[in-house]
Design a protein that fits this description.
The complex is a heterodimer of chains A (370) and B (390).
Chain A: E1 6-7, H1 18-29, H2 39-58, E2 66-69, H3 72-83, E3 87-90, H4 95-102, E4 105-109, H5 119-128, E5 134-136, H6 150-159, E6 163-167, H7 179-182, E7 186-190, E8 201-205, H8 220-223, H9 231-247, H10 252-268, E9 273-274, E10 285-289, H11 295-304, E11 307-308, H12 324-328, H13 333-337, E12 339-343, H14 350-368
Parallel strand pairs in A: 1-11, 3-4, 3-5, 5-6, 6-7
Antiparallel strand pairs in A: 2-8, 7-8, 9-10, 10-12
Helix pairs in contact in A: 1-9, 2-9, 3-4, 5-6, 10-14
Chain B: E1 11-12, H1 23-29, H2 46-66, E2 73-76, H3 79-93, E3 100-104, H4 109-120, E4 124-128, H5 138-144, E5 149-153, H6 167-176, E6 180-184, E7 203-207, E8 218-222, H7 250-288, E9 293-294, E10 305-309, H8 315-321, E11 325-326, H9 332-335, H10 342-347, H11 351-355, E12 357-361, H12 368-389
Parallel strand pairs in B: 1-11, 3-4, 3-5, 5-6, 6-7
Antiparallel strand pairs in B: 2-8, 7-8, 9-10, 10-12
The chains are: A alpha/beta (370), B alpha/beta (390).
Chain lengths: 370, 390
């Protein structure tokens, strides 16, 4: 991979931070099973508990509330499936919330054109559900970056006896997250979105909530999640969480760069649209509509210029479906199909954004001009 | 004692709990932690394609080890997840048609607990006993099968006593009766020859960290001929043919693939080497100590596993005296909690004696000098304990 390539797909996966790489490699060289009582096992156990503390610190939880999983998808499935209640979810949730919710669906809460979950609709649906539900609303959307009023929705949910789950996979490490202050009962996290290794995540479970296990077997994770711990990746998650927490302030310029980018695209192309731009958004994300040009065409052209972006969630390979998130925000099928996802992260530079603006404008002049 | 002076202590003899990562595996993994960081499910750029190609290569490597086709391999977070997915996934998919499962008393906890959960959901579960050697009796299996039986789950190599169940016979019987056969091969893959076609295996669980690969990755073989359908435990983006959603961890998957290549390539030589170490240890121990019992059949056994009971010895006190030997008193996931072994109990070992038992695991990096040191230490400490007690 040449050094001049520009990676702007952090919401799919972030490059792993160098200290994390070292920590993972060191842990891989350590032998031992963290459940074994001898020396190697105890050493790994200590490092895993340190990682648990770091993850807890990143999101304002207690370490006893952190349960490691194989990733955000497992955490979301665990929360939705093990809650064993009808599920009320927003229309812009990730597939790993929508899919497990499908078999027990109490309703789907619509979002506004700006991508914000409609509170009044949520109240109506909570009241109409008839039984206590599990309410799941993400903190920041993976395609638009729009930040949801989770704290308010959690209050409303609790007024109706709901268990409240929040998918904070895209938010953690990109904005301040406080589990206790949000007042949710469960929260999902993923390491590889914040510069940690893929293959590890966590479900934060409020102390006192007795959520049954999804994976059964040995007594790992205090009997909540069986299976020998992925020690090295967990340890890497801890280091990444620590760095992400320290690095939050350094992400502040990303919002300025993003706004600068949107301003220049708008100057060059009056028809361009940024989904969710009027709502509170993560500073790293932008969903950019180029009228009349499919995202697939744009992505191929950008890839040739050395720029890596995507057209939405990276999931089952080869699947080209118009974004359900954008459709839920009122985009028509063409608009959704013509939208790129732009996302920066811990190792992005202003020059990356400049190169993108340049390439996008060239592309626009070539393909979108009538 | 001269030889033992340069041995690294504690001597690692717990290869059934976990195996050290082979440095060659680490080397294969490293590029996917550093510059090749793409999401393998990103289809719009070369970062993603590169990761996806590595994942598919690893899938082929895993398949090759067990005689499967690459598209029959599903990556998971480990054998625990694989076992949960195989058993709960199949049971729930076929619930309306078949509601009976058969398993064995000496299975790993994650199999037993998955079956217990299904029992609470209304399935019937038959738990087969084992004989004194730890093996199932085929006629008892045959008797247990009826027209409602969906699945038989029998582990290939037992994690505590190393015995090898008669997989090909079980597979033949299950195929005849049109019952799916799942085997937990976490302790077997890469250590004994496995062939899913010849053994008529429909599903097989594998683990990375039991074969010198990384922790936190495993695989489930899901046969296409005949086709086994599963209800996923983890759904979402639809990865892994819809059977297991979630972003794959390329470094982990690549590590598992490389571990399979190495284990497959070295299996015959390594098995012979371990058998020689096993014979040496067993001969030395029985010559040095009267009254020791090898638990589990000596013949139908993976020779990297030694499991002994020491009558007249307190297990806790013995372990406390063996600080220079990293051995275990049972499965790792139970050892922290000090539970006694249900596997030994199933063989008919009395609870007091089961408590005075040790599992000694030999593996790829075990040397003759380490085995000698362990022998010497064990014989000395057991003698002393018995002398104190007497």
């Amino acid at each position: 991979m040449s050094a001049s390539r520009v990676y702007l797909d952090y919401n799919a996966s972030a490059p792993i931070r160098p200290p994390v790489i070292d920590a993972v490699a060191d842990a891989l060289r350590l032998g031992g099973n963290p459940s074994s009582v001898h020396h190697e096992g105890r050493r790994l156990r200590g490092l895993i508990e340190k990682a648990r503390q770091a993850v807890a610190d990143l999101v304002g939880a207690a370490p006893e509330e952190v349960f490691f999983t194989s990733g955000g998808t497992e955490a979301n499935n665990w929360a939705l499936r093990a809650a064993d209640r009808p599920a009320l979810v927003s229309a812009i949730e990730h597939a790993s919330v929508l899919e497990p919710a499908r078999a027990r669906l109490a309703g789907i809460i619509p979002v506004s054109r700006d991508g914000l979950v409609e509170e009044e609709a949520a109240v109506r649906q909570l009241a109409a559900a008839g039984a206590p539900v599990v309410l799941s609303v993400m903190l920041a959307n993976n395609e638009t970056g729009v930040i949801q009023p989770v704290r308010r929705l959690a209050e409303l949910g609790h007024e109706h006896g709901a268990l409240v789950h929040c998918d904070a996979v895209q938010a953690a490490g990109k904005m301040a997250v406080d589990f206790a202050a949000l007042g949710v009962d469960m929260m999902s996290l993923s390491a590889h979105k914040l510069g940690g290794p893929p293959g590890v995540g966590a479900l934060i479970i409020r102390a006192g909530l007795d959520l049954p296990a999804l994976l059964l077997g040995g007594g790992q994770e205090r009997r909540r999640r069986a299976g020998t711990e992925a020690a090295a990746t967990i340890i890497g998650f801890g280091v990444a969480a620590e760095l992400a927490g320290e690095g939050l302030a350094r992400l502040a310029p990303l919002a300025d760069w993003r706004d600068w980018m949107e301003y220049h695209l708008k100057l060059a192309a009056p028809g361009v649209r940024f989904f969710g731009a009027r709502a509170p958004r993560l500073g790293n994300s932008s969903a950019i509509l180029m009228p009349g040009v499919s995202a697939q065409t744009q992505l191929m052209a950008l890839d040739l210029e050395g720029l890596a972006l995507s057209a939405g969630a990276a999931c089952s390979s080869g699947k080209v479906a118009a974004s359900a998130v954008l459709r839920a925000m009122g985009a028509d099928a063409d608009e959704a199909a013509n939208t790129l996802r732009f996302s920066m992260g811990w190792n992005s530079a202003r020059s990356d954004v400049e190169r993108f603006v340049e390439a996008w404008c060239v592309l626009y002049d070539r393909l979108a001009q009538p | 004692m001269t030889q033992s002076a340069n041995i690294k202590r504690p001597v690692y003899l717990d290869y059934q709990a976990t195996t050290p990562l082979d440095p060659r595996v680490l080397e294969a993994m490293m590029p996917f932690l550093t510059d090749k960081f793409g999401n393998p499910h990103s289809t719009s750029h070369s970062y993603g394609w590169e990761a996806a190609a590595a994942v598919e290569r690893a899938r082929g490597q895993v398949a090759e080890l067990i005689g499967a086709a690459p598209e029959e391999i599903i990556f998971t977070s480990g054998a625990t997840e694989s076992n949960n997915l195989a058993i709960k996934g199949a049971a729930r998919f076929y619930r309306a048609r078949r509601d009976h499962l058969v398993t064995v008393v000496s299975e790993h906890k994650c199999v037993r607990e998955s079956c217990a959960a299904l029992e609470r959901e209304g399935f019937r579960v038959t738990i087969l006993p084992v004989n004194a050697g730890g093996l199932i009796e085929l006629d008892q299996l045959a008797e247990a099968l009826d027209e409602h039986t969906l699945l038989v789950s029998v582990m290939a190599v037992n994690n505590e006593i190393g015995v090898i169940q008669p997989l090909a016979d079980i597979g033949r019987l299950c195929r005849e009766k049109r019952v799916f056969f799942h085997t937990d091969a976490a302790q077997a893959a890469g250590k004994i020859p496995l062939d899913v076609r010849a053994m008529a295996i429909d599903m097989m669980s594998l683990s990375g960290h039991k074969i010198y690969g990384p922790k936190g990755v495993g695989a489930l073989f899901v046969g296409h001929r005949p086709r086994v359908r599963l209800e996923p435990l983890i759904s979402g983006g639809g990865q892994e043919a819809g059977l297991r959603s979630g972003t794959l961890a390329p470094h982990q998957v690549v590590g598992l693939g490389e571990a399979c290549v190495l284990a497959g390539g070295e299996m015959a030589d390594e098995a012979a080497r371990l058998e020689a170490l096993f014979d040496h240890f067993h001969a030395g121990l029985t010559a040095g100590l009267p009254d020791v019992v090898l638990n589990g059949d000596a013949g139908a056994r993976f020779k990297g596993n030694l499991n002994y009971s020491f009558p007249g010895v307190d297990g806790e006190m013995l372990l406390a005296r063996l600080r220079d030997l990293a051995v275990s008193s049972g499965a790792a996931c139970a050892s922290a909690s000090g539970e006694s072994s249900y596997v030994l109990e199933a063989l008919g070992v009395a609870p007091g004696l089961a408590q005075a038992s040790l599992r000694i695991g030999l593996g790829r990096f075990t040397t003759r000098a380490e085995v000698d040191y362990a022998l010497e230490t064990l014989i000395r400490e057991v003698r002393e304990l018995r002398a104190n007690h007497a």
